Amino acid sequence: MKPPAFEYLAPSSLDEALSLRARYGSDSVLLAGGQSLVPLLNLRLTFPSAVIDLGRVTELAGIRPLDGGVAIGAMTRQRSVERSELAAERSPLLVGAVRQIGHPAIRNRGTVGGSLAHADPAAELPAVAVALDAELVARSARGERTIPAADFFQGFLTTALAPDELLVEVRLPLQKGGSSLKEVTRRHGDFALAGAAAAVTVEGGRIWDARVALMGVGQGPVRATEAEAALRGAEPGDAVLREAARRAAADLQPSSDVHATATYRRRVAEVLVRRALQEAIS
Ligand SMILES: Cc1cc2nc3c(=O)[nH]c(=O)nc-3n(C[C@H](O)[C@H](O)[C@H](O)COP(=O)(O)OP(=O)(O)OC[C@H]3O[C@@H](n4cnc5c(N)ncnc54)[C@H](O)[C@@H]3O)c2cc1C
After folding, report:
1. Per residue in 136-152, pLDDT tens?
2. Which of 95, 136, 115, 100 is nearest to 34 (CA)?
3. Nearest residue CA, atom 46 of ligand 1?
4. Could you tell me if the CB of 166 is within 6 A of ligand 1?
5. Does any ligand 1 atom lie closer than 6 A to the CB of residue 102?
């Protein structure tokens, strides 16, 4: 398949990219790693007038310490995060999640910002961002704003970004305690049929903080607040984890498709939450 005709624009600075975005708005798409956008173009599922390639906007790439946590530029390749000691030290759940995205060739091109902005409900990074209460920094020619992850993801492939905005950075707080991301895929490297991300802090034999988010089971990442409430303050035994997993899956409304039924996804999600919690605690 060939993509539809479009104007190709390659800004070399963030200011230039923002002014192009202001000019073309919803008639444009941003090209980051192209791992989701190029298939969409080639399958003619999107018809932009202009493609703004962020490849030369070097200011958007980089991993830096921030307030004890870590800030990651939107154009940072997923492979760079995978190999970052700073990211591994401050956000192990993020690094563990990145390793489960596709294959190395995809992660060499795919970016952190592209994955978050694309907002695929089965993607790992949106679930991690929601679980860890990440902040997403959006910029336009009008200025900059910070959007909590809980407000950023608004539905299937839909985010809170305005047509003239770019995602410039994601900020993750220092992760305390253990974490795990478990998923079921048809083949290694595929998108998850269902998945669960968990980060748990245990102090004095009790769960002090628990964060759980699911993927592949809704229109976007799903935070399991009922499960988290059941875990906080409890002793981390098998019955507690089973009850938390039951609560996490209870209200899910996954869809059925050619890959899996809704019932299968809900059942698998429950098992994955329990396993992710077990691993995070151990
Ligand atoms: C075979 C295969 C397997 C894959 N498996 C997985 C998987 O298991 N898990 C997973 O999560 N992903 C998977 N992916 C997708 C991959 O992670 C992509 O990298 C990711 O979805 C998009 O990132 P990208 O940098 O390639 O963005 P692009 O494809 O370039 O862009 C994606 C969308 O985000 C927008 N966008 C990009 N950057 C910005 C920005 N800074 N601000 C605003 N909007 C922006 C674009 O306009 C576009 O709409 C897979 C891809 C392939 C080809």
Report:
1. 999 999 999 999 999 99
2. 115
3. 30
4. yes
5. yes
Residues 6+ apart with CB under 8 A from 29: 37, 46, 48, 50, 51, 52
Q: What is the pLDDT of residues 90-138, one digit of tens each?
A: 999 999 999 999 999 999 999 999 999 999 999 999 999 999 999 999 9
Sign of CA dihedral 239, 241, 245, 247: positive
Residue 142 vs residues 29, 148, 149, 152: alpha-carbon distances, Å: 19, 19, 21, 19
Q: Which residue has the tokens 């591994």?
A: 88
Task: Determine which residue's CA is closest to atom 1 belonging to ligand 1.
Answer: 102
Atom of ligand 1 nearest to the CA of 189: 8
Residue identifier of the C-alpha nearest atom 23 of ligand 1:
114
Total residues belonging to the chain = 282
Distance in Å, CA 261 to ligand 1 centroid: 25
**For 3-57, how does the pLDDT look when each residue is reduced to its tens digit (9 = 90+)?**
999 999 999 999 999 999 999 999 999 999 999 999 999 999 999 999 999 999 9
pTM for this model (two decimals): 0.97
Mean pLDDT of the chain: 97
Instruction: Give residue 44's region: left, alpha or beta (phi > 0; psi -120 to 50).
Output: left
CB 167 near ligand 1, within 6 Å: yes
Cβ of 30 closer than 6 Å to ligand 1, yes or no, is yes
Residue 19: Cβ-neighbour burial (10 angstroms; 0-12, 13-18, 19+)? middle
164 Cβ inside 6 Å of ligand 1:
no
